[in-house]
Specification:
Elements lengths: L1 E5 L3 H12 L3 E6 L2 H10 L3 E4 L5 H6 L7 E4 L4 H14 L3 E5 L6 H6 L4 E3 L1 H13 L15 E7 L17 E8 L2 E4 L11 E7 L3 H8 L6 H7 L1
Parallel strand pairs: 1-2, 1-4, 2-3, 4-5, 5-6
Antiparallel strand pairs: 7-10, 8-9, 8-10
Length: about 230
């Protein structure tokens, strides 16, 4: 596989080294020339010097022939913009790192489905260890044609789960209301800001996205954002 990283963070160094050892092709986009030199000397991956939130720079990474775009700089806003640009350019899978959980709803609303919050992942893993729980990634449980979809409830959607009228083959499993986890029933009342998780057949994803995911930023909006 071919994996492109935006930002040469410590996470990038560790992940890129593992991927190279496993025979994958790795390219890192980085603005700092000194870090680029360190990358070339320490792990020998491909590098592109520039700002990974710029369309022209991401285009150099050959989106059509890349399997993943990991946006993992130390700046949440840069990662979000890079992810949106990368998705618009045609990267097959886009992964967005954010450190501030307040940006999570924004990522969901923009349709950035693969969002990681390192501190939350580590804290949950450590808490599970203390309780003697076995950590199991949800990706290991969602197999074959099953898929997950998430969205944030807006003012006009404050109805019961049943009244949400999901497409056939989709079921609202649970939701987060702030830090509270709620298992959903037909009569569960949705509130503005709830983060909802739906399980569905993968062929229903486009229908769900068309209803809830905001459209990609236009070229003018991207230029203004960057």
């Amino acid at each position: 596989m071919r994996i492109v990283f935006v930002g040469a963070s410590s996470l990038t160094f560790h992940t890129a080294r593992l991927l190279l050892q496993r025979g994958h092709d790795v390219v890192v986009i980085e603005r700092n020339e000194h870090i680029i030199q360190e990358l070339m000397e320490s792990i020998g991956c491909g590098v592109i010097h520039g700002d990974g939130s710029k369309p022209a720079i991401l285009q150099e990474a050959d989106p059509g022939n890349s399997d993943y775009l990991f946006c993992v700089t130390d700046n949440d806003q840069t990662n979000i913009i890079s992810s949106l640009v990368g998705r618009s350019l045609g990267f097959a899978q886009v992964v967005t790192r954010i450190d501030d959980p307040e940006f999570e709803h924004i990522c969901i609303e923009l349709g950035l489905e693969n969002t990681i919050i390192p501190s939350r992942t580590i804290s949950r893993y450590l808490a599970a260890m203390v309780q003697g729980e076995k950590s199991l990634s949800i990706s290991a449980m969602v197999k074959n044609d099953a898929a997950l979809f998430s969205f944030v409830v807006e003012d006009h959607e404050t109805v019961t789960v049943k009244e949400l009228k999901l497409p056939e083959g989709c079921r609202l499993m649970f939701l987060y209301r702030g830090d509270k986890f709620i298992l959903a029933e037909d009569n569960t009342q949705l509130k503005t800001g709830d983060e909802v998780v739906i399980i569905c057949h993968s062929n229903k994803l486009e229908q769900l996205r068309s209803r809830w995911v905001h459209t990609d930023l236009s070229k003018d909006e991207l230029d203004n954002s960057i």
